[in-house]
Amino acid sequence: MKRKTSTADLPRRRLLQATAGGLAALPLAACATSGGDDDTEDVTNSGDAENPFGVDPSAPLDVVIFDGGFGNEYAKKHQELYKEKYPDAEMEFLATQQIAETQQPRFAEGSPADVIDNSGAQQIPFDKLIADGELAELTPLLDAPSFDDPDVPVRDTLREGIIRSGTFNGKVYQLNYIFSAWTIWHNGRLFTEKGWPTPESWEEMLDLCKDIKAEGIAPWTYAGQHPVYLYDMFLMLAGRHGGVDVVKGIDDLAPDAWRQDSVQAAAEAMYGLYEKGYILEGTPGIDHVQSQTAFNDDEAAFLPCGSWLPNEQRGIAPEDFEYVPFGVPYLDGSAQPGLVSAGGEEPFVVPERAANKPGGFEFLRIMLSAKGAQIFGDTVQAATALKGVEVDNEAARLVDAMVADPENLFQPKFRFWYTDMNEEVRPSLGALMSGEIKPDKFIDRMQKVADETAADDSIEKFSHDE
């Protein structure tokens, strides 16, 4: 049932007053025209293996996909699977990189899509969505019979860490469909030709940088316009040095967490890359496409990026380019040198006020079928949340080997939990790596916003202990 959205509904929609990925704040009154029913019924799990959520077979389904490194072909095939089961359902489909720009107005109107892949630079902040009650809680999906075996619930088919990565204070609001790792990449062919070893320690990496630079190649580049690509490199450098609790302390807003010795050491090490002239000239001003192009052309030897990189560069990189991932080189005296930022990525959500919420849950269940997951693996050569999906790709196998030990896997969370901290860390890291600020200034900036966040009672707090 559709109804007009009254102005009385508007104050609670704080998420639309925030910016997302540089999107300007939206005028609420202008957005509030018509929308869905705020009093939508909760989706329950009947246990019926064929239709556990009570999907109306003829109800249309509205799906929005982030059209980034994984493309959208896999999502089109997932829709075909949904249509096979519900042939009378009309499918609406949008593939875009402008998630906030296209979807925030729909949340404001009360008529969001039924399934949204809330990812990319214009991701709508999760803390805002959750605080405003805009997302459906996904436990009924996890407890439902899996698509392939009615005796096995969906939760038992998922890889280690997938549920945890979508959990906020004990409640699951997102299905992270991809099992991903943030790593450092190099060209295996180039390194073999030059006789360069893959560095394990930071000192080994710095020594190798001298040889790389002597060959007329810049040791490092990154997406300077999007310093989020530096985020996991920096935090893993600190976490490897002091152990995972260093990074957990930052996420949990522990007092002076940014002033820990390991965080200071990581900041100094990354600033040192600028100081030594080991970063490709012009890097602070380039975007991810330009940084990856320079990497493909062997203008730079190392690139920090996620495990989607080889797929994103299929058909772009030279045919003989060998994408080889390795962990962030560890500092001398590191307590946990094998720590890797890995787990669930690409967060899919079902809005609380979706017109076809049961269909949204069922679409996610179909995505988590063996066929749905294999479609993704075959299409983009990357691992999904589902256990047992084999990917015939050397780079993906190397990433899998890196993340084999669950004790060494950890996903930093504060940029998903706290918008203000996320909006500060990106430019601050960019300024650190470009030499605009020194490590002490970087630490001061981040500790200040962390203290302000901790002291603000209007901000919901999250914790790894929940």
Automatic annotation (TrEMBL):
The keyword Signal applies. Keywords: Signal, Transport. Residues 32-56 are annotated as: Disordered. Pfam families: SBP_bac_1. PROSITE patterns: TAT (PS51318). Residues 1-32 form the signal peptide. This is N-acetylglucosamine/diacetylchitobiose ABC transporter substrate-binding protein. It comes from Salininema proteolyticum. The gene is ngcE.
